[in-house]
Each structure stands twice: as structure tokens, then as C-alpha cells.
Amino acid sequence: MEILIRREEEADHDAVRALITAAFNRPDDQAEAKLVDDLRRGAFHVPELALVATVDDAVAGQILFSPLSIRDGEAETGSLALAPLSVLPAFQRQGVGTRLVQAGLTRAAELGFASVIVIGHPAYYRRFGFQDLARWDIRLPEGWEGAPAFGLELVSGSLAGVHGTLVYAPPFV
User: Fold this and answer.
1) What DSSP string runs through 44-66?
2) Tell me: the pLDDT tens digits for 31-85?
3) What is the separation of C-alpha 6 from the centre of its chain, rounded to a whole number of angstroms?
4) What does the alpha-carbon distance between residue 18 and residue 13 come to, in Å, rounded to a whole number?
5) 51 strand-pairing partners
6) Among 13, 14, 15, which residue's Cα sits nearest to residue 55?
7) pLDDT over 70 for what percent of the chain?
8) Crossing angle of helices 13-23/31-41, nearest 10°?
9) Which residues, in sequence order, are CB contacts of 95 under 8 Å at separation 6+?
10) What is the tens place of the pLDDT at every residue in 115-134?
């Protein structure tokens, strides 16, 4: 199976919407697909970091990164939110998600981003070097407490001394 990673194109949007719904296995809940639509529509994502994985020219997975900030009073530090990551059920556990995360992190670093924040499965994201946000005294927004949240320094030391509360793009809240 050959997995190709490329930038998402407008022609992919319907396939991405369908795969997100299938990946989250909630046909009656379009929340994740709507989130992606809202992020795109409001220009709350980094287009160069909206990636799809294709297998035999069909979209099998997607990943999206959005700017976020870590706010402490008046001080703000920029970062990226990794969300969502989706893979069609037929292609899960076959390296599609791993390839998307690796490609996204590499491109984010090449674009000059210093860190990435994700809420997700601990064992999965720790494989890529993500560490608990508590390590840097970075907190989730009010009402999100208890969610498994992680950070990754794309530039060594970029989160050192950073503390505060995450501020996500409006479609997330």
C-alpha cells in the first residue's frame, strides 16, 4: 500500500467531510466535520498544514493545524493546534495517521512554527514526542479541564518559561 501525503485541495473537501464522519464513527454527529468546515471558512487554519493522505488516489486520511495562543495576562505565545486527525476505518492501524502527523510536524517546523498542542490519546501522541502540558504549566481553556492535552517543541526550548491558558480559534469553542 502506497500512502501519499499532499496538501488538501478544495476538490477534497467532500471526501474529507465523509472520512471525518466515518473516522469518528458518529454518522448522526457532524461536529468534527463542521469544525473543519468552520476553520476553513473563517481562515482559522494554516492552509499549508491542511494535509490529506491518499491511497490509490482516494483520500484515506486528513490532518489540520490551526494557530492558537498561550495567554498569560497580556503576554501571548503563538503555537499550533493539531486537530483533527482522521483516518478512514479501513486504513486505521496501517500507518496513515502516523505519516500524516510526521509530515505535518515536519512542514510546521519548516514554516517556522515553534510548538504544537494536541488533545488526544496519550499513547498515540507520545510516540511523536508530545509531552503533558503540565510540564510547562500550560492550561486548557475553562470547561476543557481533564482532557488529555500535550505539547511538542518543534524548536528546542520554545515552551520553556511559557505558561498560561490555551486560546483556540473561535470554531473550537
Assistant:
1) -S-GGG-EEEEETTEEEEEEEEE
2) 889 999 999 998 899 999 999 999 999 999 999 999 999 999 999 999 999 999 9
3) 16
4) 9
5) 7, 63
6) 15
7) 98
8) 150
9) 3
10) 999 999 999 999 999 999 99
| Number of structural domains found in the chain | 1
Q: What is the CATH number of the domain that holds 152?
A: 3.40.630.30
150 grid coordinates: 500535550
Q: Which of 23-27, 122-126, 145-149, 169-173 has the lowest mean pLDDT?
A: 23-27
DSSP state of 169: -
Burial (Cβ within 10 Å: 0-12, 13-18, ≥19) of residue 115: buried
Quick one: cell of 83? Answer: 486537530
* CA–CA dist 48, 9 (Å, integer): 10
Domain span at residue 122 reads: 3-172
- Candidates 126, 135, 141, 140; CA nearest to 162 is 135
Query: For the whole prediction, is pTM greater than 0.90?
Result: yes
User: Is residue 80 within 8 Å of 101, Cβ to Cβ?
Assistant: no
